[in-house]
Amino acid sequence: MRFIVSALSILAVALWATATPFDAQAGERYGKQKVVYHINYPGGKDDKKYRGAMRNIQNHINAVGAENMDIKVVIHGNGIGMMKSANTKGKLQTAIANLKTQNVNFHVCNNTLKGRKIGYDQLYEVFDEDVVPSGVAELSRLQQMGYTYIKP
Predict the structure, then answer these.
(1) Does residue 13 sit in the same domain as residue 70?
(2) Fewest C-beta atoms under 10 Å: which of 8, 35, 106, 116?
(3) Are 22 and 68 part of one and the same domain?
């Protein structure tokens, strides 16, 4: 019995010793980050591409830490399908809702909304403050402000 308790104690200390430095190293390694993710493509069958993009963002947050991240998602053109699909309950809506709780901001192109005659009621949680005049102009503006561009 004493051997089992000792082995478990050693295992617990080993796990703690390996987990704690890694978490600290992640913050030191990556530091603070400003990132813009660009979504302008169709989601594919069952919104697979959109869900993959949201998974990329979550993995990014997991690696760097939400407190070290300033993430914007700019949506325009065919990417508007993501917010339309998320308007119904499902995995995509859950993923977006979870990211929003981690302060990820979703910016929707007004040109796309006007051009396709799409109202806010057709989209998942899009409000006036989420709409930008132009998706491509917003991407350029954010990059000029030091945001790293990622297209998942």
Answers:
(1) no
(2) 8
(3) no
Quick one: DSSP state of residue 37?
E
Same domain, 61 and 114: yes
| Cα end-to-end distance, the chain, whole Å | 52
Q: Measured between alpha carbons, how far is 113 from 102 in angstroms, rounded to an integer?
A: 26
Q: Are residues 17 and 37 in the same domain?
A: no
Query: pLDDT class for 29, splitting at 50, 70, 90?
Result: confident
Selection from 14-23, 25-34, 89-98 with the highest mean pLDDT: 89-98
Q: What integer pLDDT is reported at residue 89 of this predicted model?
A: 83
Say if strands 148-150 and 33-39 run parallel, antiparallel, or are unpaired: parallel
Give the H or E element holding residue 85: helix 80-85
The structural domain count of the chain equals 2
Q: What is the mean pLDDT of residues 36-50?
A: 94
Full residue range of the structural domain in which residue 98 is found: 31-150
In this structure, the chain runs to a length of: 152
Candidates 47, 71, 45; CA nearest to 58 is 71
What phi, psi does 106 have (nearest 5°)?
-105, 120
Q: Are residues 86 and 17 in the same domain?
A: no
